[in-house]
Amino acid sequence: MKKIFFCIATMLSLVCSAQPAIEKGKTEVPDLSIITLETPDKTGGQPVWKVFANRQSVREFASDRLKPKDLSMLLWAANGVNRTDGRRTAPSAMNAQDVDIYVVTPEGAYIYDAKAHVLNPVAAGNFRDATGGGQGNINQAPVFLVLVSDLSRLTRGNNAPDEQTRLFGAMDAGIIAQNINLACASLGLATVTRTTMDKEALKKALNLKETQLLLLNNPVGYPKE
Ligand SMILES: Cc1cc2nc3c(=O)[nH]c(=O)nc-3n(C[C@H](O)[C@H](O)[C@H](O)COP(=O)(O)O)c2cc1C
């Protein structure tokens, strides 16, 4: 028996040592690295009343990439951690924190890790056509924030998601979308909350599980002159 264990352990260690070491900041997703976001500046900004006054849907974008600082502020405002107990800028039903933000750029898709305030690579490739879903030139936006509720966090894995669970997921995503809209209004960014997207293509691209519901997306960019 001991011999068999020894053989298995030796084989496992050989297999593991054959894997290439992952460099710091690199991941298993080829061509994409973890993006460390800047620390968000939580002071200053425009008065909230001015932000409400400026909030509007905009569907045309300059081609410029978002400045790292703007992307960091936007994601933190959307659903970042704002308290030491790990709670977030957006409320969620039963504090399930069920909504993940996928960030689609011309290079690939990332998922926002709010706790670490980093973007973790999901898949390399340009998924902006799938996210645009054929609506005008929206696929030209430099970045999309895609809101996905993992319903299994709401059911705590106890039962199959029902209608009420789906509604909770949709409400939680709607609140985050409005955080995005207001952050964009404050930062001078153009955006529009949308349900339009090629859901089948995106589910595949983002490698989503059955319990993950694609709900909304916000293309974001600087306003076109
Ligand atoms: C749930 C929801 C889904 C929407 N879906 C789309 C969409 O697929 N495409 C789009 O261009 N706008 C979409 N919109 C934006 C609305 O068309 C927009 O909010 C509305 O015309 C009012 O304009 P305003 O946002 O500038 O006030 C959506 C808005 C919401 C709240």
Based on DSSP secondary structure assignment, what is the total number of beta strands? 7
Give the name of the CATH superfamily: NADH Oxidase
Give a quick account of the main beta sheet: strands, pairing sense, barrel closure. Answer: 7 strands, antiparallel
* CATH architectural group: 3-Layer(aba) Sandwich
In the sheet with the most strands, the strands line up as 1-4-3-2-5-7-6
Remind me, CATH topology?
Answer: NADH Oxidase
The set of bound ligands, ions and cofactors reads: flavin mononucleotide
CATH class: Alpha Beta
User: What overall geometry do the principal axes of the alpha carbons give?
Assistant: globular
Beta-strand content bin: 15-25%
Task: Give the helix level as a range of percent.
Answer: 25-40%
What does this structure look like?
- Mean pLDDT is 90; it is low at 5-24.
- The chain has one domain (30-221): 3-Layer(aba) Sandwich (NADH Oxidase).
- It has helices spanning 2-18, 48-54, 68-79, 128-132, 151-154, 163-187, 199-205; strands spanning 35-36, 99-104, 108-113, 118-124, 143-150, 190-191, 212-221.
- 34% of the residues lie in helices and 18% in strands.
- A seven-stranded antiparallel beta sheet has the order 1-4-3-2-5-7-6, sandwiched between helices.
- With 225 residues, the chain is of the alpha+beta class.
- The longest helix is centred in the last third of the chain and has 25 residues, at 163-187.
- Helix 2 crosses helix 6 and helix 3 (68-79) packs antiparallel against helix 6.
- Residues 56-57, 59, 135, 192-196 line the site of flavin mononucleotide (FMN).
